[in-house]
Design a protein that fits this description.
With 208 residues, this protein is mainly α. The protein contains 8 helices and 3 strands. It has helices at residues 14-26, 34-46, 57-63, 72-91, 118-129, 140-154, 158-162, 193-207, and strands at 169-170, 175-178, 187-189. It has a 3-stranded antiparallel sheet with strand order 1-2-3, with no helix packed on it. Strand 1 and strand 2 form a beta hairpin. The N and C termini lie far apart (52 Å). The model has no long low-confidence stretch (mean pLDDT 90).
Length: 208
């Protein structure tokens, strides 16, 4: 079975792997990297004597052994994926070993968001406005100030701004389209009028 044109699952739990990916995507997760992780699991199971729709403890633990040089975050990602797959299998009535939540090496840090003050945002914008052109990037002084303002004024993720194309920005109507957002749907964002006016000026300067 396959979830896209590049991956074909062949182990006894192939159908369940595909169902797991489809369930996650239906919930709005893009799940672009996870199929590759599950492909490795599937290939591993194909090389074992597993002949039933199950995920035995010894096989799950064997595949989840931390590899030499494997980063903690990468190992934990594999653990989480296998745990969630096993939970789905048990929910559907199939035998599967659910890895304990404390399994593996935990990350040595916890994420703590930083909230910028208005003064700090002002300094950041002023610094962006003072950027000079570079031989390696002759228009960076035009691009970076607008990126900073879009991130701040519209609440975009950095990837959303960097993935914008000319056709995604309607300067006449004052609407920006974010493509393939959550649930693989487009999202329309109306920036403040002063941002729209800046983008019009930016657009004209790029045409010169």
């Amino acid at each position: 079975m396959s979830v896209n044109s590049k991956i074909e699952f062949k182990s006894p739990i192939a159908l369940l792997i595909e169902r797991f990916i489809q369930e996650k995507r239906t919930c709005g997760y893009k799940y672009n990297e996870v199929p590759r992780i599950l492909e490795c699991l599937d290939n591993f199971l194909c090389c074992t004597k597993l002949n039933q729709i199950a995920l035995p403890e010894h096989l799950a633990l064997q595949w989840l052994e931390r590899k030499s040089g494997e980063q903690t975050s990468t190992h934990q990602r594999r653990v989480v994926v296998v745990r969630q797959l096993a939970q789905m299998m048990v929910r559907l009535g199939y035998p599967a070993y659910i890895v304990p939540g404390c399994f593996g090496t935990s990350r040595s840090y916890t994420f703590s968001p930083y909230i910028f003050t208005r003064e700090e945002i002002g300094k950041l914008i002023r610094a962006a406005d003072q950027i000079k052109p570079s031989p390696h990037s002759p228009i960076r002084q035009l691009i970076i100030p607008e990126i900073i303002r879009l991130l701040y004024a519209c609440g975009f993720r950095l990837s959303e701004v960097l993935n914008l194309r000319v056709g995604d920005v309607d300067l006449k109507e004052g609407v920006i389209t974010i493509r393939d957002d959550k649930f693989n749907k487009d999202r329309l964002v109306p920036p403040a009028l002063d941002i729209v006016e800046r983008l019009k000026v930016y657009n004209e300067r790029l045409k010169k």
